[in-house]
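thread: overnight batch results

M.L. [08:02]
morning all. the overnight job finished for the chain we discussed friday. pasting input first so we're all looking at the same thing
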Amino acid sequence: MTLRRKLAIAAALVAAALLAAVAYVAHDPDVLVRAEFARQLHAAGLSKHARDVTGHRWVYAERAGAAPDAPTLVFVHGFTGSKENFYPLVRALEDSGARYRIVVPDLPGWGESERLPRENYGFLAQSERVAAFIRSISPDRPVVLVGQSMGGGIAALVAAGYPQLVSRVALIDAAGVRFKDNRFGEAVLAGRNPFAVSDRASLDRYLATTFHGEDARPRIPWPADRAYIARRVRDAAFEQRVLDGIGRGPERFLPGDEATRIQQPTLLLWCRQDIVIDPSALALYAARIPQARRVLLDDCGHMSMMERPAQVAAALDELIERGTPR
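M.L. [08:03]
and the structure it wrote out:
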């Protein structure tokens, strides 16, 4: 067989393999999403784990601290979010020299964690589950609890209701108070889900709503966008049910009401351009938690831990090192 013939056969085999890969991805575009999340997990030095707590299978990412007594940081994501939202912040915290043990769960009902029919996934029920999860992963020492958006409302309830489990708390763009009216809040009060995603146009609107800077928005190219959109369509009824509870139901201001009981060192962090949870919420929480340190970042939106991870990491370092209780 001539060299030219061998090269032609090799090229044909490579082309066939590429076509097979493209066909596989087109058939199961979610493989691209899983691969990207796995890459981010590895880049942040995290490993994935699962455990059963409160009748749910929790999936979470974890990174050990450099010392056995390293403070444990537990991150709680927001509405329509997942543990992956915190990976840029976890990478930024690497500059702290692995001084912290990091635990980032998918809340029950979201991401890879289990969702059960007829269960309540509102503020109070989730706060009870998070408290049980903390007991499970850190039975002997309280944790630093960091919550964003819906997760901030949940974190406020845990810090107020279970002070023995939480040494410090950070509320980032947190839901749970009656902030200044904006288009997002008005849509929620009207019974709509302004985060709903059903096609490429609504996906782009969702990203533009949650991220201020266009460069900071995640790139979701074809065909990965198909997989993401399909999942959000499947979750639409669940999302609406949760949003009805935390946005319009009797629990919607429970985190703010209970925040007056928070005694721990507290960080309140917002972005000035947040068009989801208006920055006026920062002052409302501060009035209830007078010992809180307030940080208002500029040129970022609702996802500060992804748009400004270095600044958020620095604020968390300050909370852990210098926070003083009420």
